[in-house]
Amino acid sequence: MNVLLLTDKLKTGGAEIYFCKLMNKLHHDNCHFYAAAGPGELYEKLTQTKHFWQLDRNSHLKNIRKLRKVVTEKDINIIHANSLRMVFYSIILQSLARKPVQIIYTKHNVTYLEKQHPALFSKIINKHVGRVITVSECEKDNLVDLGVDSRIIVTVHNGVDLQQFTFKRDSERNIRKVGILARLSKEKNIEFFIDVANTCKNRLNMEFLIGGVGTELEQLETKINQLNLQENVKMVGAVNKPEEFLKSIDILLLTSHREVFPMVILEAMAVGTPIISIDRGGVGEAVIDKSTGILISQHDKNQFAEQIEILTNDESIRRHVIINARAKVEKEFSLDAMVNDTLSQYIDLHKTQKEMMMKEREAHV
C-alpha cells in the first residue's frame, strides 16, 4: 500500500504540525508513505524529506502535473488530504489515475464551502471521499448534520508528543504569567484576551503574553496602546518551541470565536499548564470543567478574570486540574495513539477497496 499525504503549506499551524508529526511517525512494513506541501518553516521538522515534494503556492496546474506523476510512478493507492483544497486536488488526481485511488480527508477546521453551501459540500464529500477523519466527536456530529454520510466518518483525536511536551509543572510556584498561543487572526479572538488583561490590570499583578504571528498584529498592538497596557501585555512573536512557551506561563487562555479541536490545549495539558477556555467545538472533549481545566460558555471578560484569580489563589484547585489534565492526555491523546489510529484507517480503507474490486471481478466472470 502506498499513501500520499497532502497539505497546503508548511507554515506553523495546527493542521500543518499534525501533517509533519504524522509523516515523521508513520511506519508499516507493508506500506510506503510520501508527502507534498507548499513551502514553510515546518519543512525543517520533517525527517522523511527523501519522499517529499514541494508544491507551488501560485500554480495549481503545475502542482497537479507534479502530483499526477507521483501518483503514477509511486503507484499511490490512498491520498490523505489535510485541507479542503487538497481534497479538490485529490479528486482531480483520482479522475486522472488509471487505477482506483481512495481519498481520506482529515478535517481540521471550518471551511467557507460548508458554511456558505453546505449541500454542495456534503455532496462532494459523499461522492468522492472514502473516509473523513474528524479530530473531535463534535465535528463529526456537525458533518452528519450537514448531510455527510455518517458511515464514512471516524473520529481520531489530535495527539501530543509526550516526549516533546514533558511534564514539569510545579503547582506551588508563584502565578505571574497568563498566555495565549495562537495564529493572530480574527477567529482566534486575541482582542478578547487583551480585554481580559485590561480587566485584571487593577485586580492582579499579572503579565499577559501573546505568542504567535498573523494578520491581526497591527490591530492588536494598537489596542494594547489604546488601553495603556504596554506594561501588562507583551507580544512575543513567533514561537518556534511551543513546549518552552507553555512551560514559561502559568495559565493558558483559549478565547477563539470557533474551534474544532485545538492542539494547543493538549500541549498545555501535557506540560502541566492549567487552561481556561471558551467552550467551543470539541474543546470540551479534552477540557473537562473543574477537572482537567476551566470551561466558560460565553466571552465574558469578568468570568475569565475571576477564574484566573481562583487558579492564582487556590493551590489545591490548581494542582487538581494539573494532575488530571496530564493523566487524561497520557490516556487518551498521545501522538502514538493518533498515528496508529490513522494508520488503521489507511489499512481498513485499502482492504475495503480491494474487496470491492474482487466483487466487481467476480460479477463479470
From TrEMBL:
Residues 13-163 form the Glycosyltransferase subfamily 4-like N-terminal domain. Residues 176-327 form the Glycosyl transferase family domain. It comes from the Bacteria. InterPro entries: Glyco_trans_1, Glyco_trans_4-like_N, Glycosyltransferase_grp1. Pfam families: Glyco_transf_4, Glycos_transf_1. PANTHER family: SLL1723 PROTEIN, SULFOQUINOVOSYL TRANSFERASE SQD2. This is Glycosyltransferase family 4 protein.
